[in-house]
Amino acid sequence: MPIEIRQFPCLSDNYAYLVRDSETGAVAAIDTPDAKAINAALDAQGWALTHIFNTHWHPDHTGGNLALKDRWECAIIGPKDEAAKIPGIDAQADEGDLIRLGASTAIVHATPGHTLGHIIYHFTDDGAAFVGDTIFALGCGRLFEGTPEQMWASLSKIAAMPPETKLYCAHEYTEANARFAVTLDAGNSALAQRYQSIIGMRAAGMPTVPSTVADELATNPFLRAGAAEIQTALALKDPDPVAAFAEIRRRKDRF
Ligand code: ZN
Ligand code: FE
């Protein structure tokens, strides 16, 4: 039986996610930007929180851990390499681990770059990946701790997922990302179309998340670092995708 997903905005630009295993009623919060908002959503659904799956240690992803654990006595799973920084952690997860939520299973991938221990949760049977601050719609996380090589390898794991996989990222940054993307990829008609639809969705107050792996492969400049059009726009002598990725990230940081 499938998972059910509830998505709602939290803090200034985060998304919180609740995932419910339909067969057993087990419910996980993917990260905990705001315990009050997550509790309100649980109460509105009549759901009881059994798990927290953290992607990385940043406070906008773990800030609600202890308050939620206090109320629900839920099990907290977090990245092995950041275990010391995850409040209330009970179990550590790393590359290839299978994490159970009732009768559903997520495979964990290590995606260092934004932070060194960052992990993502891929519910393969449901085609849903919770990617934290690794990839965003038309963007990617800032390299606070890792290297461009690490982040490129992490993004490549996401790029290799089935194209219809839905990507649930942790922030609504899409419109600003789109404004940057068109500066590098002006001839990309799929991007031009997506840009227009994003502007319309945001003007109507609609979320632009989730996107899909196929959407990102076609239009996300960070995933397209190896594409000839992007390399031409960057005017790099070195056709190495990692060098192009690093340059795109530098430009976005200054944009
Ligand atoms: Zn973060
Ligand atoms: Fe974040």
User: Which CATH architecture?
Assistant: 4-Layer Sandwich
- Count of helical regions: 9
List the secondary-structure elements in sequence, H or E: EEEHEHHEEEEEEEEHEHHEHHH
How many domains is the backbone divided into?
1
Helix content: 25-40%
The share of residues in extended strands comes to 15-25%
Query: Low-confidence runs (pLDDT<50, min 5 residues)?
Result: none
SS-derived structural category: alpha/beta
Bound molecules: zinc ion, fe (iii) ion
**Distance N terminus to C terminus?**
44 Å
CATH topology grouping: Metallo-beta-lactamase, Chain A
Write down the overall mean pLDDT. Answer: 97
- DSSP strand count: 14
Could you give a short account of the major beta sheet?
A: 6 strands, mixed
Q: Please, what is the CATH homologous superfamily?
A: Ribonuclease Z/Hydroxyacylglutathione hydrolase-like
Gross morphology is globular
Strand order of the largest sheet: 1-2-3-4-5-6
Radius of gyration: 18 Å
By CATH reckoning, the class would read Alpha Beta
